[in-house]
Amino acid sequence: MRVTYRDKEWEMEGRMTVRQAVEAAGLIPETVLAVRDGKLLTEDTMLEPDAAIKLVAVISGG
Predict the structure, then answer these.
(1) C-alpha to C-alpha distance for 59 and 47, rounded to whole angstroms
(2) What pLDDT is stored for residue 61 in this prediction?
(3) Are the C-beta atoms of 33 and 58 separated by less than 8 Å?
(4) Cα-based angle 25, 29, 33 (whole degrees, multiple of 5)
(5) Which of 21, 40, 43, 45 has the greatest number of CB atoms lying within 10 Å of its CB?
């Protein structure tokens, strides 16, 4: 599967959840949102080996 975050891209093998993919990329799951085809994915969504997802930084402020 292909995981994209900002200007970085990771290729990963096998099936895994969104959370596992984010952790495998070395990112903190609570700091990003996963999107596929314009739709938000939950962290327990199972990704197939041919999946392509984009990670978007979570920004908060006050």
Answers:
(1) 25
(2) 76
(3) yes
(4) 95
(5) 21
Instruction: Give the pLDDT confidence score for residue 59 in this predicted structure.
Output: 87
**Element at 18 (helix H, strand E):** helix 18-24
pTM for the whole thing?
A: 0.90
What is the mean pLDDT of each successive set of 10 residues along the chain, which is 62 residues long?
A: 97 97 97 97 97 94 72
Residue 14 near residue 49 (C-beta atoms within 8 A):
yes
Domain span including residue 22: 2-57
- Decide if 62 is inside a domain: no
Indicate if the alpha-carbon torsion angle 49, 15, 40, 60 is positive or negative.
negative
The count of structural domains within the chain is: 1
Asked whether residue 53 is assigned to any structural domain, the reply reads yes
